[in-house]
Amino acid sequence: MNTEKNSYTVIFAAIMVVVVGSILAFLATGLKPRIDENQRFEKQQNILYAMGVNQNEGDGDVAKVPTTDVEGEFSKYITQQLVWDGSEVVQKENAYLIDVQKALSNAKSGENVELPLLIGEKDGEKYYIIPMYGKGLWDVIWGYISLDENMEVKGVFFDHKGETPGLGSNINQRFFMDDFKGESVLNGETYEGIAVAKGNNDPLNSDKEDNAVDALAGATITGNGIAAMIKESLKLYKPYLETIRTN
Amino acid sequence: MALLSKKDANLIKDPLTDNNPITIQVLGICSALAITAELKASVVMAISVLFVMGVGNVVISLIRNIIPSKIRIIVQLVVVATLVIVVDQVLKAFAYDLSKTLSVFIGLIITNCIIMGRFEAFALGNGPRRAFLDGIGNALGYGVILVIVGFFRELLGSGTLFGIKVLGDPIAKTGLYSIGYENNGFMIIPPAALIVVGIIIWVQRSRNRALIEEA
Description:
The complex is a heterodimer of chains A (247) and B (215).
Chain A: H1 6-50, H2 70-77, E1 78-84, E2 89-91, H3 100-109, E3 115-122, E4 125-135, E5 140-147, E6 153-160, H4 174-177, E7 186-187, E8 190-191, E9 195-197, E10 212-214, H5 220-244
Chain B: H1 6-16, H2 29-34, H3 39-62, H4 72-94, H5 96-111, H6 113-121, H7 128-158, E1 160-161, E2 164-165, H8 191-207
Antiparallel strand pairs in B: 1-2
Helix pairs in contact in B: 1-7, 3-4, 3-5, 3-7, 4-5, 4-6, 7-8
């Protein structure tokens, strides 16, 4: 067989495309339900993590609620799923599955405002959980922040798509996320958010009044992305937060 | 009887020593710089490449006689990309946590020039068995350097190995830090990888002078 002929090359390419395409399409459709379910569980785990429902121990690694229990825990702790339509909150089933990126950009342009938010309850305390979405150095970053009525951070969860391993990727590690606990997003009356600051002379993060946490060495842009993401979300949710704020 | 003939054993041994893809052929440098700030990431990348190289080399070798030479590079690319997507999808469905750790590397594997290099230089001209051994050998050679670089960069840059604080706590000043030792922040940025790879190349060539190229 002459493999150098143009007709052969074209036919080979066509067959290759069909074969490879079929394999991938078959695989993608076959696995989609499982992948979707995994992603849904992960969202639930992340939301619960932000409100402090996790299995962290001592100084150990991030330990989320196991996937086998997550659905039960989620319905136990998350009491209300809401959307903010610009003037009031309305109940919405599975609000946590709303595409945050789309919701935020819609809200920014002022049309179809439908910002998802969740209210959780743990040990008699209320947690207002807000989703976030932003840009890191290489790709998107996202997360959840849970606040109480005093606008104090009760917990955060961050994750990223492709930040530099060992540097920016550490935003999803406990030593970074734990620092946010207890910080206030308010500075006087303004929603200042929380800066990720270099050289704030507070590596142990004992000062909870400074609206800042210690930066990650070698990941300035990812850190700035986190700060910007928090600020941006607060700006959009501010009208709602004003309605629940007590101090 | 030995499991592998001497010739076959060399397919695995050579890339580990005198024909290392990174230090001798200087291929795959980009990923070696990017992901070696942590030992764990280095190990994961090494294993991922091992899989893709082993299987990819066999696939290319099996179809080597029917690939039209004019579009062989595209065919190679399609094979790598398909394998990588298959791995990615299967992991997402059955080992979701692992797939999250790997997601950064999946994209990098496609662009790894060692893979294309071995497809082109070896799998196209050899049978599946030898191609498989060659793939495994080169992936191991690549992995060994990655792990060595990752070991030194994480140890000297962060004072940890696999995330475990082996030198004490830099903030609470315990262990080595109590006598004034400091982490070297330079080690966690990519240029440090070039220097570590450079030192490995230097050590290797001074032990085996035959490897030194004519100027």
